[in-house]
Write a sequence for this structure.
């Protein structure tokens, strides 16, 4: 990897989402400034994961999905005519809830898979592999077994491999959908350290159910909520410090203090 | 922590002495009892097996089960006896087919039999002359041509059924299932009447055409299942990395489904390689070797077996058995080779120097 691309500012404007005739998200307006980590918190089923998928156009893959509103990457609408889904996803990487390394590939091939899948030329493969694995802080654990199958790794290692796989694409924004929900505390800690390091070179949006994690890693936090039979939306959005220590909305206060959810 | 030697007995497998003798009695008594009944009453052995031995064994096992674990033990031992009995039954069936095929077929089996064709061979000609070489060639060519045409079609159908969101999927799937119930003789008759109407000459090609509708549904449906088993997570992972749909399919989904797709092809070949009726109707038989699938006569193994099986002459009967054995060996070789091929590729990516840590 030669020069790291600059982080970008991502923002959503009036994002509303439907599945079939049912509206699940209503008017989400959020700004994710460059090099900042934003945590999306809220109870299950409030649309956090759905929302994060609209940010790199993974949402449209679900049959019956509908969308209104815009998402801007450095001022350009990613749903606009100049953009197509593939080029959006190259710029905005994603890490999923469950580790999903490609089971037919080795660790090394998993890292290079993004470049191959998007049809890019790979100039210095070894360098890409090492840099990506180092950035995901898993290099020391796997450097001697790069040609092992990826599924021979433990769950926590697999998830960091998936992060490294996204990093090999050198994205401007990294979306993480509950990346630590299936992992033990040790792996979680390492991923959190990774997130902090990465924020110097990219913008990060992370969905999490773990309040402490949100407080540890994020600069700003958005609290999502869906009341009974209404579409989900953002209740409160602000600096993490403020959301957890002096929330304006009573519901936010109840949630972050564990009174419901 | 230090390593300890592996204990020889697993604690959950320990059985106390009285239970051991109970189990011993329960496994020996029913058999002896039924043997005695057969011996003294002259009851038909097969009848005794199902009518005397099985109930006795079930009762005995249930009793031991009850003594050991109470009521839940009865159900468990009942099920175990049934499973063992029925699987032995199926195994005996299967093995006896193979054993009779090998023992009868071995009489005719020789290099001559494999390599020569059937020219100048009469019903009573000694087994030292003539063979199934021409039929092997015919079968391989006709089945091969069908496979070459069907596999891409079937895989394409499977891809359509799993990857697209089209509205006609249900119709296509229903039709495929309907075709899979098509009697093979009907497929043969259809192609034969088509050939008669259009004035085509009967040939190996027509045989391939008649086999196609028999193979296609098998390949398409098994391949569909194989592709469906690939987790959707993998597809999303590929697409989230900026892969266009076709690259996600070819580089991620296809390799993940590979062994299932190989199975689909094998099952398809297995479905048609022994088909007799369609070939009898569409392919004129031949005693000489023919390499031309597009015109003229051609022999196939099923047609060869069919031709000799009903013969009253012993050498001819032996030829039929021999041909059946050859067909079975052919299928076994085909399956073995394909499995080996599809496995060695996935092994290649594994490290050669280091041990894969599992």
């Amino acid at each position: 990897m030669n020069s790291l691309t600059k982080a970008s500012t991502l923002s959503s404007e009036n994002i509303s989402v439907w599945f079939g005739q049912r509206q699940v998200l209503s008017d989400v307006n959020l700004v994710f400034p460059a090099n900042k980590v934003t945590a999306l918190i809220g109870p299950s089923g409030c649309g956090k994961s759905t929302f994060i998928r609209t940010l790199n156009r993974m949402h449209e893959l679900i049959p019956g999905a509908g969308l209104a509103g815009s998402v801007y990457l450095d001022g350009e609408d990613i749903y606009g005519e100049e953009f197509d889904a593939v080029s959006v996803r190259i710029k905005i990487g994603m890490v999923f809830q469950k580790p999903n390394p490609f089971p037919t590939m080795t660790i090394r091939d998993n890292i290079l898979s993004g470049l191959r899948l998007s049809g890019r030329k790979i100039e210095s493969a070894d360098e890409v592999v090492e840099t990506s694995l180092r950035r995901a802080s898993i290099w020391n654990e796997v450097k001697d077994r790069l040609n092992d199958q990826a599924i021979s790794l433990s769950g926590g290692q697999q998830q960091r491999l998936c992060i490294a796989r996204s990093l090999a694409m050198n994205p401007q924004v990294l979306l993480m959908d509950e990346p630590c929900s299936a992992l033990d505390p040790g792996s979680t800690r390492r991923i959190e350290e990774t997130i902090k390091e990465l924020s110097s070179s990219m913008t990060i949006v992370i969905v999490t159910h773990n309040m402490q994690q949100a407080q540890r890693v994020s600069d700003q936090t958005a609290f999502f909520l869906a009341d009974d039979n209404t579409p989900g939306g953002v209740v409160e959005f602000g600096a993490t410090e403020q959301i957890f220590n002096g929330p304006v909305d009573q519901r936010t206060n109840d949630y972050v203090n564990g009174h419901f959810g | 922590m230090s390593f300890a030697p592996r204990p020889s007995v697993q604690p959950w497998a320990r059985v106390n002495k009285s239970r051991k003798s109970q189990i011993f009695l329960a496994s020996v008594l029913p058999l002896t009892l039924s043997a005695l009944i057969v011996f003294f009453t002259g009851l038909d052995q097969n009848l005794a097996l199902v009518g005397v031995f099985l109930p006795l064994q079930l009762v005995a096992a249930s009793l031991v089960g009850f003594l050991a674990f109470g009521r839940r033990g009865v159900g468990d031992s009942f099920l175990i006896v049934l499973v063992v009995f029925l699987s032995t039954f199926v195994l005996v069936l299967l093995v006896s087919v193979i054993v009779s095929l090998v023992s009868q077929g071995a009489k005719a089996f020789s290099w001559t039999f494999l390599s020569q064709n059937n020219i100048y061979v009469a019903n009573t000609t000694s087994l030292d002359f003539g063979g199934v070489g021409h039929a092997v060639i015919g079968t391989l060519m006709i089945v091969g041509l069908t496979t070459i045409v069907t596999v891409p079609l079937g895989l394409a159908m499977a891809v359509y059924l799993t990857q697209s969101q089209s509205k006609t999927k249900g119709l296509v799937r229903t039709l495929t299932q309907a075709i899979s119930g098509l009697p093979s003789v009907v497929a043969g008759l259809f192609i034969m009447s088509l050939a008669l109407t259009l004035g085509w000459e009967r040939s190996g090609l027509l045989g391939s055409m008649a086999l196609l509708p028999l193979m296609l549904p098998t390949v398409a449906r098994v391949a569909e299942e194989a592709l469906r088993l690939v987790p959707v997570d993998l597809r999303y992972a590929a697409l989230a990395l900026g892969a266009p749909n076709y690259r996600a399919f070819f580089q991620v989904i296809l390799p993940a489904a590979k062994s299932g797709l190989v199975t689909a092809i094998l099952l398809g070949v297995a479905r048609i390689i022994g088909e007799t009726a369609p070939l009898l109707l569409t392919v004129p038989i031949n005693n000489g070797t023919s390499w031309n699938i597009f015109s003229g006569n051609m022999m196939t193994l099923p047609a060869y077996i069919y031709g000799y099986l009903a013969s009253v002459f012993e050498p001819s009967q032996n030829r039929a058995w021999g041909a059946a054995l050859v067909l079975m060996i052919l299928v076994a070789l085909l399956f073995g080779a394909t499995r080996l091929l599809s496995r060695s590729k996935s092994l290649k990516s594994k490290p050669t120097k280091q041990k894969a840590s599992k």
Summary: Chain B touches chain A through 28 residues (CB under 8 Å).
